[in-house]
Amino acid sequence: MNKTRLFQALWLLFLSVVCVLMFYFRRESTKAQQEVLAHVDSVAVDATPLSTPVPAPTVAPTSAPSPSPTPYAVTEVRVPVAGTAVPAPALSVPPAVSVPPATATPTPFFTPAPVEPFSLIWFSDTQYYAYKKPEIFLSMADWVIRVHEDCRTVAVVCTGDIVDNRNYSRHWENADAAISKISNVLPFYCVAGNHDVGADTVDYAIYRKYDFCTAPEDMQFYDDGRCWVLPLKEQELLLCGVGWQNDTQYADWLLDAIAEYPDYPAILLTHSFLNDDGSLSANGKRVERDVLRDAPSIRLVLCGHNDGSTRWSKTYPDGHTVNAMMYNFQDDKKYGLGYARILMFNPGTRNIAVTTYSPFLDDYNYYRDSSRDTFTLYDAF
Questions:
Q1: Domain membership flag for residue 154
Q2: pTM (2 decimals)?
Q3: Is residue 6 part of a domain?
Q4: Are strands 351-358 and 363-364 parallel, antiparallel or unpaired?
Q5: Domain count, the chain
Q6: pLDDT tens, residue by residue, 199-217
Q7: Which of 145, 219, 302, 334 is the most buried (most CB within 10 A)?
Q8: 304-342, pLDDT tens digit by residue?
Q9: Residue 59 in contact with residue 101, Cβ under 8 Å?
């Protein structure tokens, strides 16, 4: 009898040790999760402020000489964002020293525009913050306000699931408290996710009550916010939004609206486009079939919905390439909190430099492999 109890105690002790080790290494296993890249053509490069001497890049020796760096080839900006009221120091976006892709830099699909680099800040799936952690949402809003001038941010975009349960006003009030702070400084553009309108009922009535879901006035709407387009004329860019579960006519409306701006490269925001393995979701297949194939001006798709981070790319017969990015870390209730992405656009080269940061955790890059969170898309808009 005593031996049996001793064996049981040792077995329980062993299980306890295993549980502790699993908890300790939980983030490590999450950070090591394999990201699926359907088109690996990006290189992560950090920009260096002009006041700092630019070190010579380390490039593996090749048989042929490397091409000369293109000015503004990469425009990533790392912004110091300590949790303090002290403003972040001013940053400049310099001519970057870039490591070119393995192949020659492609010819831009659109003519480079005489516009200074600018950024969009992208939120994804903020539902948990609106539900249980409004302080995280507020920290993200305060961070946007601190850094938007240094990042030359023109807008904040959100790819849906703003709230966790559309029927609870508290969730909307928590979201509105943070978003209204942003809206006093920058435009905020979003699309509806399944938690915002109901996965099956798809009721936009509550969603449309909030100004940040149906603003601004110069945005063209389809069915009160299920679908929209908005030209950013100063940046010569077109934003498009496709909300959760549109009817069968949305694609015709969207294609006609996009056709009014044939000289503007377009970015499409939608809640669900990619699965966590990098394949197209059910809605992604529909959007790809009904919209992307017939809208060559759409060059970039941003989405959330599924957990983790992944990218997708496809080149169409006319030669234009569409890149898609998905990220959503809020399911990791300890290490995935408050992450946003800065998308720095370089109109001179059509490159987009991406960096990922959580002002709540004061942490760059959710993944251990930082190249999965900080990278550059070439000729991407």
A1: yes
A2: 0.75
A3: no
A4: antiparallel
A5: 1
A6: 888 999 999 999 888 777 7
A7: 302
A8: 999 999 999 999 998 899 999 999 999 999 999 999 999
A9: no
